[in-house]
Amino acid sequence: MRCLNCHMDNLPETTQICPNCGAQVFSLLQEVLPKGTQLRSHTYCLENAMGKGSFGITYRAHHTALKNLVVIKEFYPVEYVSRNIETKLLIIPEKNRETYKRNLYRFLEEGQILAKLDHPNVVKVRDLFEERDTAYIVMELVQGKTLLKELEDQPEKKLSPDRVEKIIGQLVNALTAIHEAGIYHLDLKPENMILTPNDQLILIDFGAATLASDAKRKKTRSFTECYAAPEIMTGGEVGPQSDLFEVGMILHELLTGKLPPPAMKRALETDLWQPKGLEHPWDMLIVDALRIKRDKRSSTVDQWWELRKQEQVNTIRIEQKMQKIYKVSFPYLY
């Protein structure tokens, strides 16, 4: 069993209080489907809940015929529904039905778009279906550990610049693919990324994602305050730059072991914060990504990532120019 608050695994089935975070494990599992629940005409069998967010519950499960492990995301927007404790069926109040249906349609649409993506750094969608008055997305179960766990395992809670470049490069590739497909993730953080044993990054958990077609619509969004861009927190228009902001926060954390101040705190303090102790191109990349105003950031994540190459090109050109000057001024040195 897993604590859905701190994600501590292998808890005994009789656990009432999580020994790690002190949360009441039983109450957290009240709205979760029980172990052994079968879905899609007995195709999948649930094993245990892995996580719970504002819009869904994630389960570890297995395919009953193929016996392979999968992850199943259940659409469960806690703001609009509850679960009958006995039957485990959804209870949708009449006043919430229209909103629920709209969000369910978007959930299905996002699943369909993700299913068409075949990218090495994006979790693969295997199935999508409606059942029990809701919908389910079936994804591959990625073996590895989260980027958050990898950071926690480091003595100084940070990674080497070479490794950071490799990881962020993969994240940029993943985001470029999903942005081109018309999806914005909007909840990028180390715990939503898995590193496989060979250091391949896989982007997971699209529970807070939105379609590009909904980007201009003002709405209350699910977010993680210490990573989120200001427009996500205020419910404003979002875009690729919103994901870029969160990449900038992660980049600073990977390099230094610490997060920059939250976006809203910086906004209230007239944005005087600057990264310290970082060399080029890291400081320049972070400054660009973490601009408070969305339209002041690079327009795409890959354009932003290319800035580091431009910095290198400029440095090489300066060095070549200085060499020419030295050759003319001090020919006896060459």
What would a concise description of this structure say?
This protein is of the alpha+beta class and 334 residues long. The chain has helices spanning 25-28, 97-116, 147-152, 161-180, 230-233, 240-256, 263-268, 282-289, 301-329, and strands at residues 38-39, 44-52, 56-63, 69-75, 82-83, 90-91, 125-131, 134-140, 145-146, 183-184, 193-195, 201-203, 210-211.
Tell me the CATH architecture of the largest domain: Orthogonal Bundle
Order of helices and strands: HEEEEEEHEEEHHEEEEHHHHH
CATH superfamily of the largest domain: Transferase(Phosphotransferase) domain 1
Q: Helix count, per DSSP?
A: 9
Count of distinct strands: 13
- Largest sheet features: 6 strands, antiparallel
Distance between the termini: 71 Å
How many structurally independent domains? 2
As laid out across the biggest beta sheet, the strand order is 1-2-3-4-8-7
User: Looking at the structure, what is the overall shape?
Assistant: globular
The structural class is alpha+beta
Q: DSSP strand (E) fraction?
A: 15-25%
Domain Protein kinase: 44-313
Keywords: ATP-binding, Kinase, Nucleotide-binding, Transferase
GO molecular function: ATP binding; protein serine/threonine kinase activity
GO biological process, one term: intracellular signal transduction
